[in-house]
Prior knowledge:
By secondary structure, the protein is an alpha/beta fold. The chain contains twelve helices and 16 strands. It has helices at about 10-30, 60-70, 85-90, 105-120, 140-155, 180-185, 210, 230-235, 280-290, 300-310, 325-330, 340-355, and strands at about 30-35, 45-55, 70-80, 95-100, 125-130, 135, 160-165, 190, 195-200, 215, 225, 240-245, 255, 260, 265-275, 320.
Amino acid sequence: MSDHPPQTSIAARIKKRLASTLHRALFLASIRHLQGPKRRIAAKDEVVLVALMRDGSYYLDGFFDHYRRLGVAHFVFFDNGSRDDTLDRLRGQPDVSILQSTLPWGRYENSFRSYAAKRYATDRWCLIADMDEIFDFEGSAEIGLQGLTRFLTKQGYSGLMAQMLEMFPKAPLRKTATLPYVQALAQFDHCDITSVTAHDYQSPGSGLGYFLRQNKVAEPAPQVLFGGIRGKVFGENCCLSKHPLIFVGSGIEPACHPHASTGLRLAPMTALIKHYKFANDALARDRASVADALIAHGEDRQRLSVLGQNPDLSLWSPQAQHFPGISSLQQQGFLQADPAYGAYLAEYRHEVQND
């Protein structure tokens, strides 16, 4: 996988620039504002969440419950043409704005997220999350997002990396396909990190070096992880590392890649994204995705092939572990701790005990 853009002729560069201009013009013309404030509403110390969705009703209860408890002040949903009751359920929510475009997901997903982040979170902290992602971090129950961003701001950081951990049940996936999301969050309680591979943060081997070299990283730099249970079972070379929490300030380009933003000064620690890819009938969703040809990378097709041949597949094996918690994942090397952040948490706990 190469991360160096090939050298091109002048004619090719002109053609690319024209295509980019057309892409942006079509995108801007397609946007509809459906609900909520039209521009930034969050206060300086508040966090805005941006989520790209289509037919996301299944996830809403668990999604709102987690992120409101975490301290998200305002939700911006960029809808890509939902046909279920998602929009009806979101209407009237006091902390929600909705934008919509029905342009193809695979070609425009970066534009969807980046535009929403700039429109609603300029000069604010922005958390970019997919509907099947649960963002968490060390000390989250104690200090919430405001405590985390206060530390990052004080240290001069403008971004935080997170590692994605696939969560799955011990039972065959077929038996849990119809579980409501809130129940899936409880019952998908296993993970497997035995097949994770790692690259240095700015290494060309990750395929993301073009983007990541545009960021400044505090040492020790976090690693870029690949594989995990999806690599082990389905042969996917999926990237597990993302920049979900960023300050959308000057010189920062949010979500210019599904896994990366640029212009960041990145903290050395890593947060956690518990990923529930296999909730909500994964086999049916992959069938629909392949039939609609929404995404070009082929991972849906790989999963569909394996699940189709083995409908009673379980992701559990003797190498799997019950979710061990963030501290244990740090000890196992999947997540990276930061002594300065640890001292910040210790000081907070000391102050609470002495109040």
